[in-house]
Amino acid sequence: MPDKAKRILLKLSGEYLGGPKGQGFDFEVIERLALQLIEVRGRGFEVAIVLGGGNFFRGAQNQPIPMDRVNADQIGMLATVMNSLALKETFMAHGQSAAVMTGLNIPAVAEPFEKRKAIKKLSRGEMLIFGGGTGNPFFSTDTAAALRALEVEADWVIKGTMVDGVYDKDPKKHPDAVKYKTLTFSDALKHDLKVMDAAAIALCRENSLPIGVVDIASETALLDFLAGKDVGSMVR
Fold first, then answer.
1. pLDDT at residue 4 in the model
2. What's the pTM?
């Protein structure tokens, strides 16, 4: 992590907020996350967050009835807004100012995304959570994370996962899996390493936006990565 890095965007799955079951809200997990990010903010970083919605809804293909893809994606986007609001309230319960901006037009719940307002919020120390994906169907929250990171001029996108970096295969299933400390965007795409989806990686590659991958379940990995210690993986 270069010393000049100041503004980060953290991408997390919705399942992480659901705890061991990966469903609904696990407020112990959400509180640990909030406290970890408050400490990151206390070290001088500006923090934006994009959350998935899989703890509530996992898309049209996983439903017991035929479902239109556009409607299914809209349900998923609303699930990300619920997650965003829960995290916002947790920040505020600990005295940390926070705001939610969305790609969906739901003004009674959160204000719509607008670049200048978003950067102003970050620069004055607010935790900024982007809900509602891009506001469009057919785009994942990975792609939303890359897009929002570019729009707010973040220095890094950081993907929080349940493993300690990027491996050539699933380390939970294969003891001989090899971890990459650094790799290129092209390698991540060529070998389908599941860092983020292909559209998000391509967007980062085209705009030279580096991706960090850390174990978000660790209480220290994110802070250590930001401090330049030898943890996680970097795609650049």
1. 61
2. 0.94
